[in-house]
Amino acid sequence: MDSQDLESRVPATVEPIVPLLPYQREDVECSARFRWNCWARQTGKSFTKSLRRILRGIARRRNQIFLSAGERQSRELMQKARAHCQALQIATEFRDDQSLRGMCCKTLEITLPNGVRIIGLPANPRTARGFTGDVFLDEFAMHADDRDIWAAMFPTLLRGDGELDVASTPQGKGNTFFQLRENQLFSAHTLTLTEAISQGLQADAEQMRLAMDDDAIYRQEFLCEFIDEATAFLTYEQIAACTDANLVPHGDISALAAESGELFAGVDIGRRRDLTVFWVFASGAPSGDATTAGDHALSEQLRTVALVEMCNAPFTVQFELLCELLRLPQLRRCCIDAGGLGMQLAEQAVEQFGSHRVETIVFTNALKSQMAGALRVAVERRRIVIPADERIRRDWHSVERTVTEAGHFRLAAPRRDGSHADRFWAAALAIHAAGAATGIVEHFAARRLNFAQRGTW
After folding, report:
1. Is the dihedral of CA 298, 379, 440, 248 positive or negative?
2. For the chain, which terminus, N or C, has the lower number of CB atoms within 10 Å?
3. What is the DSSP string of 343-375?
4. Containing H/E element for 242?
């Protein structure tokens, strides 16, 4: 079944079952075995590719494996696939939350009447193994461990002339997606926002450019340019190396009560223009996981266990949440941004919980450089684990190194998407808290005290 078959099922005067723009139709009908698509944001990559793979799977009677950057993205992609099946009136069986043995990840599966399975997975090298079928790598430039995923996944295509679709928006040059654009065996197609609009996409490119107010990001996201990362303090490749597609941090502080490891927190304070971000790391293996001598590296890692973001929240609400965090017995230390708006909250926290538990941080250029450097070292050594979240990647990557006229390095970040690198600095504060913490709190019992029976006693 192809797109022409879809439209032939209804009269010509009626809208097609799945309406497609010309560039979408061209992609759905393409017969290339290997397909590379670099499309601008919000031009319908996932919509088009999921439809293409469903139709190709039915025609070829082959299973289809969808690999997305994380569990949330995998779920959204599979929802698009289900919507296509419903629109085409294809009876399906849908299964959710099947744990793969020995892995902390979930699979989503759609079974079609002819036995073809559409399997949605969060991408990592382990989940990419063990399947046979055609593959769609969704937003491949965003995948952590993309080279290992590529090595694990590609043998899947060996038998039965397996097909591969790779689609993404650019994300720098240090990834496999960028390298594949020169591969002569791939049918390559680049689609900018301007080109999509000329083919019928309803959008205002100039309004988007002016509203974004960032030429480099606009060129990357909407003009499909692979921007050089020479000035980035952390490259996309470095950030991707410490992400875990299966890591889903808590969105509320109360859930941290179940964590068994020691906690270290960083709080970057904002109000109207910036976010307030609570970033919490936990040391050791995840709760419930047994560690052995061979898991020493895992036990030394700092895992992101909570990420709470507040926008335009009253300071009373922020302080209540801060107190809830500081009351947790597992919390070893918390570093709070005490400059400007955060001064009063930080002082109240120290007064109520003590300076041994709370450290106030007033950012200076020298201290910013020191703390950002510590975060970068932790990233390079894979000492921290963060979720595969596009907002985090963009936030961390937005920090740039500039050189002043005096020859000094300076870290700066533009204010975009309601954030001024707030997630970056909250994580840096949490890393500083982990480094500033003293040894494990211990106690010992001496012999039982004996009080004299004479005198004042």
Report:
1. negative
2. C
3. HHHHHHHHHHH-TTTEEEE---HHHHHHHHHHH
4. none
Q: How many structural domains compose the chain?
A: 2
Question: Which residues, 6+ apart, have CB-to-CB distance to 343 below 8 Å?
Answer: none
Residue reference for tokens 């201290």: 367
How much is the average pLDDT of 312-330? 91
Residue 163 lies in a domain: yes
Mind giving me the DSSP string for 385-422?
A: EEE--HHHHHHHHT-EEEE-TTS-EEEE---BTTBSSH
The answer to whether 260 and 313 have CB atoms below 8 angstroms apart is: no
- The answer on 140 and 81 residing in a single domain is yes
Q: Is residue 376 part of a domain?
A: yes
CB count within 10 Å of CB 420 equals 20
Looking up tokens 């211990």 gives 442
**Which range of residues forms the domain containing residue 368?**
236-436
pLDDT band at 338 (very low <50, low <70, confident <90, very high): confident
Contact 259/282 with Cβ under 8 angstroms? yes
Lowest mean pLDDT among 27-36, 306-315, 328-337: 306-315
Among 105, 98, 22, 92, CA closest to 57: 92
Radius of gyration for the chain, computed over Cα atoms and rounded to the nearest angstrom: 26
| Of residues 250, 244, 255, the one with CA closest to residue 298 | 244
pTM greater than the 0.70 cutoff: no
Q: Which residues pair with 266 in a beta bridge?
A: 279, 335
CA geometry: angle at 262 spanning 260 and 264, to 5°?
Answer: 135
CB atoms within 10 A of CB 335: 26
N- to C-terminal Cα distance for the chain? 96
**Statement to judge: residues 195 and 287 lie in one domain:** no
